[in-house]
TrEMBL record:
The keyword Heme does not apply. Coiled coil: none annotated. SMART domains: Elp3. It comes from Lebetimonas natsushimae. The keyword Iron-sulfur applies. This is Radical SAM core domain-containing protein. Its cofactor is [4Fe-4S] cluster. InterPro entries: Aldolase_TIM (IPR013785), Elp3/MiaA/NifB-like_rSAM (IPR006638), GTPase_Obg (IPR040084), rSAM (IPR007197), rSAM_sf (IPR058240). Residues 12-243 form the Radical SAM core domain. Keywords: 4Fe-4S, Iron, Iron-sulfur, Metal-binding, S-adenosyl-L-methionine. PANTHER family: FEMO COFACTOR BIOSYNTHESIS PROTEIN NIFB-RELATED, UPF0026 PROTEIN SLR1464. GO terms for molecular function: 4 iron, 4 sulfur cluster binding; catalytic activity; metal ion binding. SUPFAM superfamilies: Radical SAM enzymes.
Length: 319
């Protein structure tokens, strides 16, 4: 097992500063197939929690990366579970979180929330200081359209799970709503979504837009006017709303192996051409090395929203 692929970064994050990523789920195992997913199409739809990796391996991978970053005086704001699929499908989540606490760096997790109806998932999430829960819409038909959930998921049970969890969780609970033009940006749906989010009393209600290449080609970023309207609607429900509409910056960290670093980052985080240029300079690599990875079909180049992006070509694992 190549433990290096279990962690990546740190990568610049709009919400978490510089976060060291934990990739605890194999290539796109997810309970959703969101139309805007930056990882591409879901390779394995699942709602079954299981063990994917040995928690010790995740711990050792993080330890190795953190030591090498410390030597370079690189700052890490969070250790964040932001994997190749849905983070809570990992049955060892709490075990891994406990092991990672040794580093005294705050723990964060991004989840689509689809398993929140389960008490074990709620309990596992209590280990984290910062959580982002997906709430793309509180309207069932819109949820189905945008998140394309696993057929066995029950929307009302999930919403109840969110509410129950929000009452007992003591850390920073945040919501994220990805706005997609003509899908979930209409006034009626936004009001219902804001009303539901209000019941969770979140630290922040983030509204984001698909700034990186999405799974489906026909996805569009809403017009500025509609983004502003969404912001105003959320605010009118008393939510501490923040728009995530800016690119997060180019400060990607090089540890010591260009190819491994780039593959680990692009597997969860498509990287923009200007960011890659900087990354090449840091790591003494060249565009030829990038072309080689494209030739080997390990990464691909995509044009989206006025920029070129480089992302990992994810292949189905046996998980
Ligand atoms: S955006 Fe997240 S929840 Fe949606 S399909 Fe991609 S990995 Fe799964």
């Amino acid at each position: 097992m190549d433990i290096d692929k279990l962690t990546y970064g740190p990568v610049p994050s709009r919400r978490l500063g510089r976060s060291l990523g934990i990739n605890n789920i194999p290539a796109k195992v997810c309970s959703y197939a969101c139309i805007y997913c930056q990882l591409g199409n879901t390779l394995k739809m699942s709602i079954e929690r299981k063990s994917f990796y040995n928690p010790e391996d995740i711990y050792l991978s993080a330890k190795k990366r953190i030591s090498s970053l410390k030597e370079k005086n690189e700052k890490i704001d969070y250790v964040a579970f932001v994997p190749d699929g849905e983070s809570t499908l990992d049955i060892n989540l709490a075990k891994e979180a406990n092991l990672l606490k040794e580093f005294n760096i705050k723990l964060a997790i991004i989840t689509n929330g689809s398993l929140m109806y389960r008490e074990d998932v709620q309990n596992d999430l209590m280990q984290f200081e910062w959580i982002s829960l997906k709430v793309d819409s509180a309207v069932k038909s819109v949820w189905k359209k945008i998140d394309r959930p696993h057929g066995k998921l029950n929307f009302e049970d999930i919403k109840k799970g969110y509410i129950d969890f929000s009452k007992k969780y003591k850390g920073l609970l945040n919501t994220e709503t990805m706005l997609v033009k003509n899908i979930n940006d209409d006034e009626e749906s936004l009001k219902k979504t804001a009303e539901f989010i209000k019941t969770l009393n979140p630290n922040k209600a983030y509204i984001s837009i698909p700034i990186r290449p999405p799974a489906e080609n026909n996805i569009q970023i809403p017009d500025d006017e509609d983004i502003n309207r969404a912001y105003l609607i959320f605010n009118s429900y008393g939510l501490n709303t923040e728009l995530l509409v800016q690119y997060e910056g180019n400060n990607f960290t090089y540890t010591n192996d260009f190819e491994k670093d780039l593959l680990a980052i692009t597997s969860v985080h498509p990287i923009r051409e200007d960011a890659l240029e900087k990354f090449l300079q840091k790591s003494n690599a060249s565009w030829k090395d990038v072309e080689n990875l494209i030739k080997k079909q390990l990464i691909k180049k995509t044009f989206y929203n006025k920029h070129y992006y480089f992302s990992r070509i994810l292949k189905k694992s046996n998980s």
